[in-house]
Amino acid sequence: MNDTGIDAVLFDMDGTLFDSERIWDVSLAELAHELGGELSPTARQLLVGSNLLRTVRIVQDDLGTDEDDQRLATWLLDRTCALFAAGVPWRPGARSLVESVRARGIPTALVTTSYRALVDVTLAQIPAGMFEFSVCGDEVEHPKPHPEPYLTAAAALGVDPGHGIAIEDSLNGITSAVRAGCLTVAVPEEPGTLSGSHGAVVLALEEVTVDRLAGLLTGRRHDEPEGVWR
């Protein structure tokens, strides 16, 4: 038990806790080069929070190619794993947020579209025990934006999703968490990258504290949200 009223905090990985989208920029650009083209900025934005097979299909649609999706997905996964192994940096304020959540006795889980291979490479670089459970994109039948990943994490922790908080950065992730019933806080890397809130509270990552999260959850329960919903 803890004194916050928060049963669990469920964190997305790429772009939320870790500055890994920059790494994906490299592997995706290399994939596009292998296919003889260059990924458009519009397509790159669509890939944020996307699962692996959908990612390679978007890349191919953008470039007008029609290679084997599974082969390209394997290539992209292997290349990105190699890049992750060189070091995946935390986003500013992310590690201290996770540590403060843990210090207050709140269970945590990692809920990501990335495959287990990438998650294991990332988890090997941080202290053990920061997350009690992790759900990966290749471990669910329906990845984000379906609610299954967040429902799976909540069930594993033994909590009601409505008593938990999801921290996300992408539209696919926000949609998944909101559909699961979580109070969802969006922390996009760049202001204005989300067009509307899509049911989430939008904050800068540096603004997120345990007490603020507790206030938001209490406010929702009383239908009087604390802070600005936008």
TrEMBL record:
InterPro entries: HAD-like_sf (IPR036412), HAD-SF_hydro_IA (IPR006439), HAD_sf (IPR023214), PGP-like_dom2 (IPR023198). Pfam families: Hydrolase. This is Haloacid dehalogenase. NCBIfam families: HAD-SF-IA-v3. PANTHER family: 2-DEOXYGLUCOSE-6-PHOSPHATE PHOSPHATASE 2, PSEUDOURIDINE-5'-PHOSPHATASE.
